[in-house]
């Protein structure tokens, strides 16, 4: 059926007025964690229509955690358009978003493996790698992208359970998943971790989250040195404000989510598709001398 709302020009122009790059204020909205991108207003642009591939990842096999929505979904769609087969992990509640990403990958004629499960469970992390490797026939690219961000105004109100869940999701899981993946990664493989501008400019209300994102940078810098002799590269991506479900499912107070990105020089949050090129570059063989680095995409404010 023709989509009457489809813009005449499907690809982003990059112009300030491009409707695919909407500007705040956004409607006030809240969802329970982990949230669904498909229920957001405006809908995030994961590149479904707007990402063009040029075969830069032909034949590669990638696993992306948090690949159902937001930045991970944009990376997954871009990877498929660049010629990769892609496995995505997500929480069972996010099946609807995951189904859309799987459909987008398969529309490119690439293999899509959907692996729901909770990465705060060490045994699941091992099984995740086993399922990805058997489904894809190996592994060349690992993107540790899943994350938990729940704001809290006062340290006295931050429970041990919440602190622990943030640490498990953002620090332990990348360790467990990467350790399980290493026996399957050969020279030329790439490991990517999604950190944040919060690693360098922590918000008052993201005390636990900001610490994990600083740890993610150290993850890349340390592991890059350790794995260089094996020809495996490790890098971190540090997004600034991006329009994703993370922000409207407890990541920010509702009134702050509505103006997410407004204070940046570009005056808006990034759309997930706008950071996908960094993930593509870091996964590609073109990045053969890029390791132990972190890359920002913050909207003008810098890291
Ligand atoms: P998102 O909500 O779309 O993606 C996060 C994903 O993490 C979820 O889709 C979910 O599948 C996954 N996840 C969370 N807990 C999990 C668990 N226990 N088990 C399995 N999966 C789990 O939001 P996003 O903004 O695209 O987040 C992706 C990454 O980007 C995160 O690491 C986040 O910290 C980082 N980041 C986001 C922003 C932003 O403004 N959106 C800024 C800086 C960094
Ligand atoms: Mg999601």
UniProtKB/TrEMBL annotation:
Any stretches that span the bilayer, and where are they?
A: none
Entries under Pfam families matching the protein: adh_short_C2
Q: Which UniProt keywords apply?
A: Oxidoreductase
Q: Which residue intervals make up region (Disordered)?
A: 1-42
Molecular function GO labels: oxidoreductase activity, acting on CH-OH group of donors
Database matches in InterPro entries: NAD(P)-bd_dom_sf (IPR036291), SDR_fam (IPR002347)
Gene3D superfamilies assigned to the protein according to its UniProt record, in alphabetical order: NAD(P)-binding Rossmann-like Domain (3.40.50.720)
Family, per entry: Belongs to the short-chain dehydrogenases/reductases (SDR) family.
List the protein's name. Uncharacterized oxidoreductase YghA
């Amino acid at each position: 059926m023709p989509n009457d709302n489809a813009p005449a020009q499907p690809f982003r122009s990059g112009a300030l007025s491009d409707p695919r790059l909407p500007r705040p204020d956004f409607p006030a909205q809240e969802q329970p964690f982990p949230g669904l991108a498909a229920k957001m207003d405006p809908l995030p642009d994961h590149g479904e229509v707007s990402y063009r591939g040029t075969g830069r990842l032909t034949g590669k096999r990638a696993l992306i955690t948090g690949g159902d929505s937001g930045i991970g979904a944009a990376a997954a769609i871009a990877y498929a358009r660049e010629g990769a087969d892609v496995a995505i992990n997500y929480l069972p509640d996010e099946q609807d978003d995951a189904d859309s990403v799987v459909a987008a990958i398969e529309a490119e004629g690439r293999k899509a493996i959907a692996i729901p499960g909770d990465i705060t469970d060490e045994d699941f992390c091992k099984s995740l790698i086993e399922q990805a490797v058997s489904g894809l026939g190996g592994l060349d690219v690992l993107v540790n992208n899943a994350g938990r961000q729940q704001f809290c105004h006062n340290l006295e109100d931050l429970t041990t359970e919440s602190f622990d869940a943030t640490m498990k999701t953002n620090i332990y899981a990348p360790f467990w998943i990467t350790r399980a993946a290493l026996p399957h990664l050969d020279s030329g493989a790439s490991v990517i971790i999604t950190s944040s501008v919060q690693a360098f400019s922590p918000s008052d209300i993201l005390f636990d989250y900001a610490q994990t994102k600083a740890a993610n940078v150290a993850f890349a810098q340390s592991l890059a040195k350790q794995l260089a002799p094996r020809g495996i590269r490790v890098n971190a991506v540090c997004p600034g404000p991006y329009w994703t479900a993370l922000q409207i499912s407890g990541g920010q107070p509702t009134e702050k989510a509505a103006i997410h990105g407004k204070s940046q020089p570009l005056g808006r949050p990034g759309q997930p598709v706008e950071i996908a090129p960094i993930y593509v570059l870091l996964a590609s063989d073109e990045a053969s001398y890029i390791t132990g680095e972190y890359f920002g995409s913050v909207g003008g404010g810098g890291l």
